């Protein structure tokens, strides 16, 4: 019944040139706005929302979903080409995407990202259509103890997500956790590490931090000894990717998509957590984890698939429960409300066609993003042709404007510069940077839910073991932590050489 | 035992010190917040400073550990001092990065006084010229290029961010 | 190549949004530039919605572009400071509610209310008490009885200290004579989620975020803390009708930085009132469960003073007023 109404709506759409034109327009706008560093998906949606005021609600939603889906991929373009992740969800896209582009495989990287995000989006959509009630049930089992356990799980996974010593990566992650707590406490409104100054009271927003750490930090490193030996500019290389490169990665894409959908479906966890866990998981499973971070396609494909899949996932609580999955779906929900359609159990129970309408919109947006995105790759890779002298300056300007634009606050520009310096110092000290961003995302989720759980249990820590999902997650964490230790002990017992086990991997 | 950071005793020691320094700063800042806090906390709540304190302790322990490992490494491999001329070289190599940060720090002020468009134009022109000159030496062509691309960057920012998206950037 | 792409689409975008490209040169006739409405919460929230809807109407009434800026952070104080610090020329105005009143006493860096010039009052957002339908309780009496029997049985979800549903959670149980176990959530959406996942059994949210759930029957509204019944929930009695004198509400008002010229202020007041009274805004506001009560600038100032007088003692009692900001 669901599928037939899906088909009906789809045919209705395809036979209307006006609708198709609108999807195409939305897709192009989303791609371009998303690709401009400094404009996030949230912003693209908010900017274009007024355009839809005069449209019919359904048409407006179609248009906005097209913008939303394509801007998710658009954000990956600037992450890959300029190391400027425009949204928290693309922080892991640049980790392997940017090195690929630097090696002259920008076209390949964009191809990987596009295909992975289409596949991820489709898997997310399929799970949304087929499993929404099941997944919604799963999501409602998530209360504070489970959120805390997921965040803990993420933090444990983080130790696998970066090169170099696991211990050092975890410690850097804890620094990120502390940084994430700067500002007002979400539960008591206490000021924390603010020195009573407005800059710190605002807290560290993720976007200025990541564009500073990655974008500006990269420029500062490149400027060291700049001019001594002119850097070889990367060739553009082949734009189109051999098909087998993609098909051989179906497992990676599928894993990323499933992780993305599930985590996206948990309200408030959001896409940033989904991509982090997808990346860490893929690196842990990989046969060549040491190549992650130097341009390994798997390191790009997994988070991209998860990123797009989390869109489908985050629509599940919106459709099934009427609560937004993350900040972007919150804007989408706002747009629905502008048109007098407040998501909730009633809206979708009373308008089943409207649900199909949303599904079809997501489907069409994915297809259009794939087609138009492929067309754009050739133009986009030309960015790598720009000589570094110009590129660094342009990126710096984007960093400044982008940091300001996220909250329209000049203080965030200073935050961005400070984290550029942090990124530089960290690289001089051979410390990994990604765990810092990771801690910044997960720290507040962990803390808030940990403390709320303890309030519920009146201070008894056993609450985390009494609930099945959190108990299982914590058990997995314990196993993951003890596994390397057990391995080490095993090798020791068998008289393996000390050097090979102790050395940082 | 090999020092954990890059196998280098010097770096391990430096990272150890860095972590201890961060923990120290963190502790000082946290103490100030604790003094400011007068609200009551909910029963069962370990309080708004619990997790920060925990993380800072981890930082202290890890920093101390790396510090010791670094010292150990020095004892095993012997201390090698960096010759002064190397230090001068390093300092020179960093000049551009430091200058870049310094000029970025001036940007917010420049944007407020000159307006965003002019500040961007100025920043881009100076730096494009500077970077071109560092690589290939001074040439009139570079001045022209710098003016052209600097103006281009400013125009782009003005068109997209100031006019089209009407961000409240200082005008 | 990329640049040309961007430019062409930039022009498409302009055509689509119909923003005036070169603003008129005439400085004398207000408004000659885009008006910026500052929202101190992220896009997608209640205030953001109000600002975008009003902005849409205002732009046709005043014949100028209206832009919404989300200046967020520090519990709304960053945005409030942005408004207070803006040039008082009528091109920067803002949306505010109860949060600004609380913050002005809780945070020494938050702007004082006397730095603001109220323009119009948009709506009341009365407090209410909601309970999850799964508890089987659907009357206020039932709730009070259950709470008196075991205060720990029903937990309440609300904002962190200073937020509107926190204030409601201070006022309502006291008048009902019960002890309420309050669990803080950062914002209304997470509170609704907690209510639906049954982590908490009750909530003291205003009506709009729970309206759909109340209509669907998953959430029962036990009482509304206003003089009149809520127009979207005509079957839900007020607290007064049930014998408890509880009237407490958040509000939405538009403000400007202190010191805008009198003629600009009156033009804005007139334009904003027309926007709030427009059919388009009224229809959208009604669908979302807002209780409109459009008032002019002078009445708005009176309302603001009233709210201040109500909130200060509550904050003081909860020990939330910063020592430097204590009133005698």
Give the secondary structure arrangement, pairings included:
The complex is a heterotrimer of chains A (505), B (171) and C (328).
Chain A: H1 2-14, H2 17-35, H3 41-48, H4 57-82, H5 93-140, H6 144-161, H7 166-180, E1 183-184, E2 191-192, H8 198-201, H9 206-223, H10 243-247, H11 250-265, H12 270-285, H13 297-320, H14 327-338, H15 345-350, H16 352-381, H17 388-407, H18 411-428, H19 434-456, H20 463-466, H21 468-493, H22 498-502
Antiparallel strand pairs in A: 1-2
Helix pairs in contact in A: 1-16, 2-4, 2-16, 3-4, 3-14, 4-5, 4-13, 4-14, 4-16, 5-11, 5-13, 5-16, 6-7, 6-12, 6-19, 6-21, 7-19, 9-17, 9-18, 11-12, 11-13, 12-13, 17-18
Chain B: H1 9-36, H2 50-77, H3 84-114, H4 116-136, H5 140-164
Helix pairs in contact in B: 1-2, 3-4, 4-5
Chain C: H1 2-17, E1 35-39, H2 46-62, E2 66-70, H3 77-85, E3 92-96, H4 98-106, E4 116-126, E5 128-132, H5 140-149, E6 155-158, H6 164-176, E7 181-184, H7 188-196, E8 202-203, H8 207-216, E9 219-224, E10 249-257, H9 262-277, H10 279-287, E11 291-295, H11 297-317
Parallel strand pairs in C: 1-2, 1-3, 6-7, 6-8
Antiparallel strand pairs in C: 3-10, 4-10, 4-11, 5-8, 5-9
Please give a structural write-up.
The complex is a heterotrimer of chains A (505), B (171) and C (328). Chain A is mainly α and 505 residues long. Helices cover 74% and strands 1% of the residues of chain A. The longest helix of chain A is centred in the N-terminal third of the chain and has 48 residues. The C terminus of chain A is likely disordered. Chain B has 171 residues and is mainly α. Chain B contains 5 helices and no strands. In chain B, helix 1 packs antiparallel against helix 2, helix 3 runs antiparallel to helix 4 and helix 4 packs antiparallel against helix 5. Chain C is 42% helix and 19% strand. Chain C contains 11 helices and 11 strands. Chain C has a 6-stranded mixed β-sheet. Chains in contact: A-B, A-C, B-C. Chains A and C meet through helix 2, helix 3, strand 1, helix 14 and helix 15 of A and helix 1, helix 2, strand 2, helix 3 and helix 7 of C.
């Amino acid at each position: 019944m669901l599928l037939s109404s899906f088909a009906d709506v789809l045919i209705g759409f395809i036979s209307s040139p006006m609708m198709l034109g609108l999807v195409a327009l939305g897709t192009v706008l989303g791609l371009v706005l998303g690709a401009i560093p400094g404009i996030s998906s949230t912003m693209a949606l908010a900017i274009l929302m007024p355009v839809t005021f005069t449209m019919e609600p359904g048409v407006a939603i179609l248009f906005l979903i097209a913008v939303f889906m394509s801007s998710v991929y658009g954000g990956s373009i600037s992450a890959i080409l300029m190391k400027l992740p425009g949204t928290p969800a693309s922080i892991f896209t640049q980790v392997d995407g940017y090195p690929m582009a630097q090696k002259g495989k920008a076209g390949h990287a964009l191809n990987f990202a596009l295909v992975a995000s289409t596949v991820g989006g489709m898997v997310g959509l399929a799970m949304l259509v087929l499993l929404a009630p099941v997944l919604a049930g799963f999501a409602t089992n998530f209360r504070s103890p489970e959120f805390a356990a997921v965040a803990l799980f993420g933090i444990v996974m983080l130790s696998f997500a970066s090169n170099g010593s696991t211990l050092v990566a975890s410690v850097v992650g804890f620094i990120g956790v502390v940084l994430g707590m700067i500002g007002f406490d979400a539960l008591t409104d206490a000021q924390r590490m603010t020195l009573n100054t407005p800059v710190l009271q605002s807290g560290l927003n993720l976007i200025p931090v990541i564009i500073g750490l990655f974008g500006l930090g990269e420029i500062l490193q490149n400027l060291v000894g700049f001019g001594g030996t002119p850097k070889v500019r990367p060739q553009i290389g082949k734009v189109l990717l051999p098909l087998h490169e993609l098909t051989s990665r179906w497992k990676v894409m599928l894993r990323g998509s499933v992780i993305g959908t599930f985590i996206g479906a948990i309200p408030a966890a959001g896409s940033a957590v989904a991509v982090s866990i997808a990346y860490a998981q893929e690196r842990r499973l990989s046969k060549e984890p040491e190549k992650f971070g130097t341009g390994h396609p798997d390191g790009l494909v997994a988070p991209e698939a998860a990123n797009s899949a989390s869109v489908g996932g985050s629509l599940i609580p919106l459709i099934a429960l009427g609560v937004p999955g993350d900040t972007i779906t919150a804007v989408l929900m706002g747009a629905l409300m502008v048109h007098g359609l407040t998501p909730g159990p009633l809206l979708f129970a009373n308008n089943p066609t409207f649900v199909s309408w949303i599904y079809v919109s997501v489907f069409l947006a994915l297809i259009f993003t794939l087609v138009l995105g492929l067309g754009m790759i050739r133009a986009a890779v030309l960015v790598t042709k720009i000589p570094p002298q110009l590129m660094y300056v342009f990126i710096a300007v984007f960093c400044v404007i982008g940091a300001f634009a996220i909250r329209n606050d000049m203080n965030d520009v200073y935050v961005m510069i400070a984290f550029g310096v942090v990124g530089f110092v960290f690289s001089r000290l051979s410390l990994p940077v990604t765990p810092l961003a990771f801690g910044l995302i997960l720290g507040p989720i962990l803390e808030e839910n940990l403390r709320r759980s303890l309030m519920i249990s009146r201070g008894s820590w056993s609450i985390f073991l009494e609930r099945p999902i959190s108990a299982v997650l914590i058990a997995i964490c314990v196993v993951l932590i003890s596994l390397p230790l057990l391995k080490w002990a095993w090798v020791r017992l068998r008289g393996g050489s000390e050097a090979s086990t102790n050395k940082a991997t | 035992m090999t020092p954990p950071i890059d196998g280098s005793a010097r770096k391990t020691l430096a990272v150890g010190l860095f972590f201890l320094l961060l923990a120290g700063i963190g502790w000082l800042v946290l103490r100030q917040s604790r003094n400011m806090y007068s609200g009551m906390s909910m029963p069962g709540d370990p309080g708004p400073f619990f997790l920060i304190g925990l993380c800072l302790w981890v930082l202290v322990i890890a920093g101390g550990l790396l510090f010791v490992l670094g010292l150990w490494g020095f004892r095993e491999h012997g201390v090698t001092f960096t010759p002064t001329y190397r230090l001068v070289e390093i300092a020179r190599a960093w000049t551009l990065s430091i200058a870049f940060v310094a000029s970025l720090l001036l940007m917010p002020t420049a944007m407020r006084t000159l307006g965003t468009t002019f500040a961007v134009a100025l920043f881009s022109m100076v730096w494009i010229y500077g970077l071109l000159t560092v690589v290939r030496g001074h040439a009139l062509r570079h001045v022209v290029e710098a003016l052209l691309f600097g103006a281009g960057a400013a125009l782009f920012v003005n068109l997209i961010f100031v006019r089209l998206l009407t961000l409240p950037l200082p005008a | 190549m990329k640049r040309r792409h961007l430019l062409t689409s930039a022009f498409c975008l302009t055509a689509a949004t119909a923003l005036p490209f070169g603003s008129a040169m005439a400085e004398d006739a207000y408004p000659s530039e885009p008006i910026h409405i500052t929202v101190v919460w992220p896009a997608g929230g209640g205030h953001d919605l109000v600002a975008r809807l009003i902005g849409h109407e205002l732009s046709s009434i005043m014949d100028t572009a209206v832009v919404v800026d989300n200046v967020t952070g520090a519990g709304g104080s960053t945005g409030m400071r942005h408004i207070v610090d803006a040039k008082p020329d009528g091109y920067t105005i803002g949306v505010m509610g109860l949060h600004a009143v609380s913050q002005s006493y809780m945070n020494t860096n938050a702007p004082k209310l006397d730095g603001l010039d109220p323009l119009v009052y948009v709506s009341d957002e009365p407090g209410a008490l909601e309970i999850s339908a799964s508890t089987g309780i659907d009357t206020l009496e039932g709730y009070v009885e259950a709470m008196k029997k075991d205060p720990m049985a029903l937990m309440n979800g609300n904002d962190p200290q200073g937020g509107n549903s926190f204030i409601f959670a201070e006022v309502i149980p006291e008048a009902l004579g019960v002890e309420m176990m309050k669990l803080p959530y950062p914002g209304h959406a997470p509170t609704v989620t907690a209510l639906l996942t049954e982590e908490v059994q009750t909530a003291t949210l205003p009506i709009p975020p729970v309206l759909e759930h109340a209509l669907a029957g998953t959430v029962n509204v036990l009482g509304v803390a206003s003089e009149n019944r809520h127009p979207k929930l005509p079957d839900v009695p007020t607290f007064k009708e049930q014998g408890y004198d509880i009237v407490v509400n958040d509000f939405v008002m538009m403000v400007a930085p202190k010191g805008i010229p009198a003629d600009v202020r009156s033009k804005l007041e007139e334009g904003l009132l027309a926007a709030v009274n427009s059919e388009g805004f009224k229809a959208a506001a009604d669908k979302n469960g807002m209780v409109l009560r459009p008032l002019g600038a002078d009445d708005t100032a009176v309302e603001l003073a009233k709210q201040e007088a109500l909130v200060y003692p509550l904050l003081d009692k909860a020990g939330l007023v910063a020592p430097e900001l204590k009133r005698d």
